[in-house]
Amino acid sequence: MKNLISVVGPTGIGKTRLAIDLAKHFNTEIISCDSRQFFKEMKIGTASPSEEELAEAPHHFIGNLSVQDYYSIGQYEEDALKKLNELFEKHDTVILVGGSMMYEKAVLEGLNDLPEANAENQEKLQDILDSDGIEKLQEILKILDPEYYAVVDIHNHRRLLRAIDVIWQTDTKYSEQIAVSQDSRDFNVIRIGIEAPREELYDRINRRVDMMMEKGLLEEARGLEEFKELTALNTVGYSELFKYFDGEWDLDFAVSEIKKNSRRYAKRQLTWYRKADDIHYLQLGYSQQDFDNLIEWISTQFQN
Fold this sequence. Notes:
Helix content: 40-55%
Mean pLDDT: 93
Order of helices and strands: EHEHEHEHHHHHHEHHHHEH
Structural class: alpha/beta
CATH class of the largest domain: Alpha Beta
Radius of gyration: 20 Å
Low-confidence stretches: none
Strand order of the largest sheet: 3-2-4-1-5-6
């Protein structure tokens, strides 16, 4: 039986380092399920692995697309499984890493056959958005599906429109529909998480944003301003700086909003992962001994 070790956890907690250490130990390769790191023009703002890190272990799905490429989660599921099958031909164990919850889920369980968008519903919801703002959509979703509301990016109107449309069409909570495992995968999954006290995590996130600014996030965002309407750039770290370029916010405020929105995203990730009972946790700042113990524990999870 082949093994997929999936490294999960909130943004800024150190998943990249752990994934590389595991890949080196098992002499294997890494598949990214971080949907923001797919785009080659967004290296700094998505904290993509550095050149040095990429040289330590082979990575797949890092900087493989342009922000102008359309790429859906369904396409990713297909591509990632194909790549996994290729890697399993030469390795018994492969590492998956990333904080995009639905993308990890797509690889581990498959996506559900959700209905296509209903034009009438979309129109009705667009009218609500235009007349009452995104808050009204948030309110509707919270009533219809509090579980999904707790983990969705409530500032992303497309996600809200999609979820409400599907609930209206199927009369079933969106969270329930995406929780059903579709087709079993023929590999063994071992999920590893990193955790830290919330204050420590938030502190790391704030420091990481400062480092991104030092590394040139402002210039990176300026170079992408012409694409700001694209979905790939409707994301933390870029949308705030676009408001600074537009003269809506000053730079200090924009940076403080990046920190705040990054912390919010981490909070949603924590909510999502907390629901899982199959994640084995390592504490942030783990020692070599902790890592050795983890390797030992992983070996007990391998299925022949």
